[in-house]
Amino acid sequence: MINFSRNLAQLVGLVCFIGLFAIMGCHRNSGMQSASSRKLSAPSGDPLPVASLTQGVWLKGDLHVHSRHSKESSNNPIAKILAFSSKVGMDYICITDHDNHVDGDVAHHTWADPEFTSDSLLLLYGAEWTTTRGHGNIFSAKPYDHKRLFEVRDQRDVVVGEVKNKLGIHLSANHPSGKDHFGYSYDMLESLEVWNSVLWSNNANAIMIWDDMLSSGRKLTGRGGSDAHHGLPDTPELATKNSPQAKANYVGTPTTWVFATARTSQAVVEALTNGRVSVSANPFAPRVEFYADSNQDGTMDMMMGDNTKAVGKPVTFRVKLTGNTVAKEPYTISVVKNGGLFGTFQASGPTPTAEFTDTPPSTGRTYYRVVVEGPATAYPQVPESAALSGKMVGLSNPIYFNFDPNF
Ligand SMILES: [Zn+2]
Ligand SMILES: [Zn+2]
Questions:
Q1: How far is the CA of 319 from the centre of ligand 1 (A)?
Q2: Which of 31, 234, 340, 377 places its Cα 20 to 30 Å from the Cα of 406?
Q3: What's the pTM value of the predicted model, to 2 decimals?
């Protein structure tokens, strides 16, 4: 789903609808408890998070790609997607073909394709759940019975939620402010596509929805997805009217980084659920890392996605950009606190870093997340992408205080 000339008035209308939906959807149905119970948080009363900041590995990938098994894709066999992904250094990939194009049977199409194999990439199992109420992606470390979810697509949320929980899958809302936005309860979700495709400017309303969901108490991971459908044609005769998209939007625009406890598909899905996630404009753009020292002992003890109890004392936060930073101009780091701008910082040098201190109150929920803008990083394999992502470099997931993991 990429519309390079989206109508602004239409988007505003959609957001009004989704805002209303958010207000109406604030009561979680107890039948829909989800994988969110695995989300990282400290035991009640303990100000420190439970997961290590050092025992893990950063892995990058794309969570929304269509292959030839989606009817409207072109020149995009799985082998081409995987070869490209390896070439640009991806660690994992999820091919998410439209399930309705194969009558729900992704297991005998995408997953059974002889090309669905890789020595270098972790291949997640998933699909784009394509329904009359909108689109969502499923992510799973292992094959699951996708047909069961396909079969209940027109039923009530409580039925869908039960099936989803039985399957043990991660469900994610796609392009939430665009055409075919996710029209089910956000209580069923583990994540939300806050950055769909290379056109960053189209995602402003998705970010607004994310902030509204966070503000309502949902601990919901923000992630990216290129939604690429079209590969470069091997010969000029194979070109379609959509082939030019391959030079502007392809695997990695944007790239989702996860801090996984191991280099396994299961750890990738768990990191996505836990929110130890940031999104970068492309695989070569700097990675945004966001940490906090919640007990002021001089050592960072939390990272994005972590949730702890606020004790009413100051907390020091650190934002760090790692990887290929471009030295020619500084990066601008905007800190968002509870949906509003908390502050803006400039950072430069080989590892641009910014620190700030704030005191999250001991009562009520507080979250902080960061957005980084600055010079674009070249992505020669998708040569027209840098101009379209513009100054957007990357964004982090929030650090949370006093969120209820069982909301
Ligand atoms: Zn879609
Ligand atoms: Zn899609």
A1: 32
A2: 340
A3: 0.89
For residue 77, report the distance from its CA to the centre of ligand 1, in Å.
19
C-alpha distance from residue 217 to each of 19, 118, 147, 256, 336 (Å)? 15, 39, 32, 23, 16
- List the beta bridge partners of residue 355: 318
| pLDDT per 10-residue tile (average), the chain, 407 residues | 39 33 32 43 54 93 98 98 98 98 98 98 98 98 98 98 98 95 96 96 94 97 98 96 96 98 97 97 97 94 96 97 86 98 95 97 97 96 95 97 86
Ligand 1 center to 403 CA (angstroms): 30
Q: Give residue 383 CA to ligand 1 midpoint distance, Å.
A: 24
| CATH class (in words) of the domain with range 8-23+34-401 | alpha beta
CA distance 263 to 20: 40
Q: Give me ligand 2 centre to Cα 78, in Å.
A: 15
